[in-house]
Amino acid sequence: MAPQIERPKTGDALCKDCFFWAFETEIHKTIVGGGLFKRGDLVAVAASGGKDSTVLAYVLKLLNKRHDYGLKLLLLSIDEGITGYRDDSLETVKQNRDEYDMPLKILSYEELYGWTMDAIVKQIGRKNNCTFCGVFRRQALDRGVMMLDVDCLATGHNADDIAETVLMNILRGDIARLQRCTAIVTASEGTIPRCKPLKYTYEKEIVMYAYFKKLTYFSTECVFAPNAYRGHARAFLKDLEKIRPTSIIDIIHSGEQLSVHEGVRLAVRGKCPRCGFLTSQPVCKACTLLEGLNRGLPRLGISKSSIATRAKEEQDRTANKTVLSKDF
């Protein structure tokens, strides 16, 4: 077949079938080379309905069968409560569930924290909304994987995302996070590992793969995203890529090779006394933010809701050890 596609990553001219094979093989090599999974692992895919998580779920299912990884796969989604965005994207996730025959668990901010992002933005405005959402989402994923008792959480972070994070950490002077942000597997004691199978996969190629494979995915940007600081790093990276297409991988490799002084370390993490999740502060960021939101609203008090939520999560976790259904 005559070449139809020029790969953004390498500039190679390939037919569609050869592009599919090259794309999938690179992800397979990343998985094997990084030792991301073990046979028999129960792996949750963080599913948003977007291109990255949709392609990740599709390719993991395909490679699991092609290379006999021996994995059990499921989808984990977080409903932040953003009208006109997350409610629509979750419909796409449900289609993915049916198309890929994977169990799906959806957790909402409202059930975990008593707030939706719409309500948070109404109270605090749009200036710092991404801070609240990012902190709550990270903890919500931790709650979800513990509830489901999985062995690993696979996220759809692609090469562009990681290069952007390297740039952001440099621009903010956050040297301690440079090594962690390029790690393909991240875990702390007492937490379930997270891995990035798409670490070296270009965003443009993910879009091309989803398009030519005719995958169902949600492409609308979050209505609150334009104000995010990451957007500035993304714009800068896109300008670099126009000049030098290998800039994305070059930045990742630079981040991997940066030598951090022995005295520069991330803070030691312990358990938050309120919710029980890991934190480097006396009280975790999620509980601190939640306390600010709940001030003057005692019916949403952190202590009572956290204890009740953790008890329910432990019950669900025990139940899910033996039963995996199409919907949790």
TrEMBL record:
Q: Where is this chain's protein located in or outside the cell? A: Cytoplasm
Q: Where is the tRNA(Ile)-lysidine/2-thiocytidine synthase N-terminal domain?
A: 43-219
Picking any one GO biological process from the record gives: protein urmylation
- Look up the record and name the pathway of this protein: tRNA modification; 5-methoxycarbonylmethyl-2-thiouridine-tRNA biosynthesis
* EC id: 2.7.7.-
Span of domain Cytoplasmic tRNA 2-thiolation protein 1 C-terminal: 270-300
Stretches of the chain forming a coiled coil according to its record: none
Principal subcellular localisation of the protein: cytoplasm
Cellular component, GO annotation = cytosolic tRNA wobble base thiouridylase complex; mitochondrion
Q: Which UniProt keywords apply?
A: ATP-binding, Cytoplasm, Nucleotide-binding, RNA-binding, Transferase, tRNA processing, tRNA-binding
Q: Does the keyword Nucleotide-binding apply?
A: yes
Entry GO MF terms: ATP binding; nucleotidyltransferase activity; tRNA binding
Q: Which PROSITE patterns match?
A: UPF0021
Mind telling me which Pfam families this protein's record contains?
A: ATP_bind_3, zn-ribbon_14
Domain of life (superkingdom)? Eukaryota
Q: Where does ATP bind?
A: A46, A47, S48, D52, I78, G156, D161
Q: What class of enzyme is it?
A: transferase
Give the record's family classification: Belongs to the TtcA family. CTU1/NCS6/ATPBD3 subfamily.
The free-text function statement in the UniProt record for this protein reads: Plays a central role in 2-thiolation of mcm(5)S(2)U at tRNA wobble positions of tRNA(Lys), tRNA(Glu) and tRNA(Gln). Directly binds tRNAs and probably acts by catalyzing adenylation of tRNAs, an intermediate required for 2-thiolation. It is unclear whether it acts as a sulfurtransferase that transfers sulfur from thiocarboxylated URM1 onto the uridine of tRNAs at wobble position.
**NCBIfam families with a match to the protein in the record:** TIGR00269 family protein (TIGR00269)
Name-wise, this protein is Cytoplasmic tRNA 2-thiolation protein 1
